[in-house]
Amino acid sequence: MNTNRNYKDSIFVKLFSNKKEILELYNAIKGTNYDLETTEINIITLEDVLFMERNNDLCFTIDDKLVMLIEHQNSINKNMPLRFLLYIAREYEKILDNENVYKSKLIEIPKPEFIVLYNGQSKYEKRCKLYLSDAFKVQI
Fold first, then answer.
1. Within 13 Å, how many C-alpha atoms sit on residue 45's CB side?
2. Per-residue b/e over 12-30, b at no fewer than 16 CB within 10 Å?
3. Which of 2, 4, 75, 100 has CA 20 to 30 A from 138's CA?
4. Rounded to whole angstroms, how far apart are CA atoms 15 and 82?
5. Measured CA distances, 52 to 12, 73, 87, 90, 116 (Å)
């Protein structure tokens, strides 16, 4: 049975489109106890805009400390580290004053954290780490 991948993605995005559900998802994944009253959350998910072919499923900051990128996948995709690199660069462009990049003072940026939630048919490890360096043509 073929399913509409965009339909599944849109359900995930819709389900986690508000701060309460985002915080519950993050706490469940990370084993943390953030609460809405004391935690600042900013949703900064990339939207499909003119000339941008890629968008991510879910991105937010928590207390201006983390940039979260969460992708929901129903197929195994070894290119997720590369996709996250492309996403995070666009996210930083959105939240930073790009003129400061050319100045000598160090710009502090939120630490990125990348999570893939997989629910496909193929067997896959419960937890694993994917590395961008695995995609390099010449291995270091």
1. 18
2. beeebeeeeebbebbeeee
3. 75
4. 26
5. 21, 20, 11, 10, 22
pLDDT digits (tens, 9 = 90+) for 18-68: 899 989 989 999 999 999 999 988 888 776 544 345 566 788 888 878 878
**Largest Cα span, the chain:** 55
Q: Which residue did the predictor score with more confidence, 50 or 138? A: 138
Question: Do the beta carbons of residue 95 and residue 44 sit within 8 Å?
Answer: yes
Q: Which of 74, 89, 81, 79 is nearest to 122 (CA)?
A: 74
Beta bridge partners of 117: 72
CA 122 to CA 23: how far, in whole Å? 29
Pairing of strands 111-118, 66-73: parallel
Judge whether 68 and 91 are in contact, CB under 8 Å: no
The contacts of residue 92 (CB under 8 Å, 6+ apart) are 67, 109
